[in-house]
DNA sequence: AAGGTTCTTGACGGAACCTTGACGTTCCCG
DNA sequence: CGGGAACGTCAAGGTTCCGTCAAGAACCTT
């Protein structure tokens, strides 16, 4: 919740106060508007990570305001509707007008907080870690890229998958069977192609560099780690 | 709901059937797993736009599976928990483990559908009609226009759709399967017309310019990136 | 009904990839 | 120490995948 900036649009003074205090106590900074006229101004002048929006407001209602945000201002900040209206049609309208979530009063403050966090996390693309890293070796699953010491490595698809598994399990040792099963399922090749793939993987990952990262434990499996334990 | 592909993980046969039929009737294609073991396999082999995940499952529970998706596989598909557990702590745990939404059984099917749509809309960057931009390439969804370096490109409708998908996923790699499914749903052409469309797309987007933006990763998929560095 | 655009199909050459097998080396355990 | 199993190295064959292109089918518009 750190460093979130949130706009709360709600005309009930009491509820607004409660929500505001809770969120600020969690580290967010919250601006408050009691109607959409003020909200309109705030939204044009400041950036908010998320908006909490009541449906029943004096003057323009929340649905309409949300739609205005999306269509006219082209703002894509997450919007959470907060309202006492619990009928299905109300919820459907909320989503239809461009809302991201819909929470019915009375709600538990921690739940509101959790939903806010989830939306912001997604907005910021923090849902998953984007790279795996072992020492100076980095693997980016989304881009299908591997770098060591900053430079891009060329790997075949299978080599990439093997490296991904080893890095995911690091520093654990991965057995040959586990690797083969994960790569090919029940259709494991007759003669062990895995050896060739590991050879090619090594050629790309370790050969051009000083220290080897990829280790073999004969009869046990393979591992990738920064400090290859040397036998006692 | 057009051409969504959804993975439903739920052990109650009856409920699964109901949800599945409803979503398919809305135009989604739904794969079904009764446990996380099967779900694990499916998730590694196919792309899904979203996952519906029960919490109480035989063997591994849904929370744990979701966390595994995020941490180990680095998959960022939206996850909606579906469960009868309505206690606050359960919900908090769902979000804490990487869930995007949490819906309590029994729920109205249209609400589930609305929440699914809202999540996918956000994932696909369709909340607003803002232009997508990668380097000097701009795509305006509202006007159905594409420009590179300021000049208007002439694209066929399908080429436009492909480019839009690649741009919104950038810099992620999009598999051939994902592209085909989103373009044609269950009616994918026999022989791969996708190749021709990509060829034409390249001819329009890359051919007249200095650097290519559209990259092929053989056996993996396609991506569009500002800096298509090649290894050695 | 005609004309244009778009989509699909099929063929071809080439590149990338996976598998296989051979051979030498290392490791483990009797 | 010696033999067998496991491993590293490497090249070659076959397969899959991809870029290219043109022709015909389907579609839409007028």
SSE arrangement:
The structure is a homodimer of 232-residue chains.
Chain A: E1 5-9, H1 13-25, E2 29-33, H2 36-45, E3 50-54, H3 62-71, E4 79-83, H4 88-96, E5 101-104, H5 109-123, E6 132-134, E7 137-140, E8 145-148, E9 151-153, H6 157-169, H7 176-184, H8 193-205, E10 214-217, E11 221-224
Parallel strand pairs in A: 1-2, 1-3, 3-4, 4-5
Antiparallel strand pairs in A: 6-7, 7-8, 8-9, 10-11
The first copy, chain A, binds a DNA duplex (30 and 30 nucleotides) through residues 156-158, 189-191, 193, 195-199, 202-203, 216, 218-219.
Structure characterization notes:
Two copies of one chain form a homodimer. The first copy, chain A, is of the alpha/beta class. Chain A has helices spanning 13-25, 36-45, 62-71, 88-96, 109-123, 157-169, 176-184, 193-205; strands spanning 5-9, 29-33, 50-54, 79-83, 101-104, 132-134, 137-140, 145-148, 151-153, 214-217, 221-224. In chain A, strands 2-1-3-4-5 form a five-stranded parallel β-sheet, with helices on both faces. In chain A, α3 links the parallel β3 (50-54) and β4. Chain A starts with a strand and ends in an 8-residue tail after the last strand. The mean pLDDT of chain A is 92. Chain A binds chain B through residues 70-71, 74-76, 78, 88, 91-92, 95-96, 98-101, 108, 110-111, 114-115, 117-118, 122, 125, 127-130, 132, 141-144, 151-154, 156-157, 168, 185, and chain B through 41, 70-76, 78, 88, 91-92, 95-96, 98-101, 108, 110-111, 114-115, 117-118, 122, 125, 127-130, 171-173, 217-220, 223, 225, 229-232.
């Amino acid at each position: 919740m750190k460093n979130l900036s949130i706009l709360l649009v709600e005309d009930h003074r009491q509820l607004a106060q409660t929500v505001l205090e809770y969120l600020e106590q969690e580290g967010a900074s919250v601006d408050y508007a009691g109607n959409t006229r003020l909200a309109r101004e705030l939204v044009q002048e400041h950036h908010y990570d998320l908006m909490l929006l009541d449906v029943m407001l004096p003057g323009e209602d929340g649905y309409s305001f949300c739609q205005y945000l999306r269509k006219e201002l082209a703002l894509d900040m997450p919007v959470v509707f907060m309202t006492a209206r619990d009928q299905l049609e109300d919820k459907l309208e909320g989503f239809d007008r461009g809302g991201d979530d819909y929470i019915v009063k009375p709600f538990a403050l921690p739940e509101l907080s959790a939903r806010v966090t989830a939306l912001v996390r997604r907005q910021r693309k923090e849902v998953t870690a984007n790279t795996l890293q072992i020492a100076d070796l980095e693997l980016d699953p989304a881009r299908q890229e591997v770098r060591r010491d900053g430079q891009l490595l060329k790997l075949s698809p299978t080599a990439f998958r093997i490296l991904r598994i080893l890095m995911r399990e690091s520093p654990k040792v991965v057995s040959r069977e586990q690797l083969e099963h994960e790569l090919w399922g029940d259709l494991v090749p007759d003669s062990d192609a895995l050896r060739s793939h590991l050879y090619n993987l090594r050629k790309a990952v370790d050969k051009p560099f000083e220290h080897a990262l990829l280790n073999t434990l004969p009869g046990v499996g393979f591992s990738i780690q920064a400090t290859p334990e040397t036998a006692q």
